[in-house]
Write a structure and sequence with these properties.
Helix content: 55-70%
Number of strands: 2
Strand content: 5-15%
Number of helices: 4
Oligomer: single chain
Strand order of the largest sheet: 1-2
CATH topology of the largest domain: Arc Repressor Mutant, subunit A
Shape: elongated
CATH architecture of the largest domain: Orthogonal Bundle
CATH superfamily of the largest domain: Winged helix-like DNA-binding domain superfamily/Winged helix DNA-binding domain
Order of helices and strands: HHHEEH
């Protein structure tokens, strides 16, 4: 019988992600306007790439744009519309790329 190691990396990572997300949400609640990744990174001492991961894990509570990050609850209708249009455009481009790549993969020489 093979013994399974009880490694808690996933649980620890999830706990830290939840704690960091709560910290970012609290930070954004105190800020007015958009906060850039550089500002957040400097003020919260976290990696700017990690900020994107936190925003993605926020279950829609945080919106990220070229202007920076903001709580969804504080976004104006115009800002939301712009974000939504940009996001839909990105999705469309990614789906088109997926279709082209899939077609090329199916036509590859064996």
């Amino acid at each position: 019988m093979i013994a399974q190691l009880d490694l808690s990396f996933a649980k620890d990572q999830k706990r830290h992600l939840d704690e960091d997300l709560a910290r970012l949400i609290e930070y954004l609640a105190w800020c007015s306007g958009w906060r850039t990744a550089r500002q957040i990174s400097r003020e919260l001492e976290i990696n700017d790439r990690y900020i994107r991961e936190l925003a993605e894990a926020s279950d829609g509570q945080i919106i990220g744009t070229n202007s920076g990050y903001k709580l969804t609850s504080r976004v104006t209708p115009e800002e939301f519309s712009e974000w939504s249009a940009r996001y839909n455009s990105q999705i469309k481009r990614m789906l088109e790329r997926l279709q082209r790549t899939t077609g090329n993969w199916h036509r590859r020489g064996k």
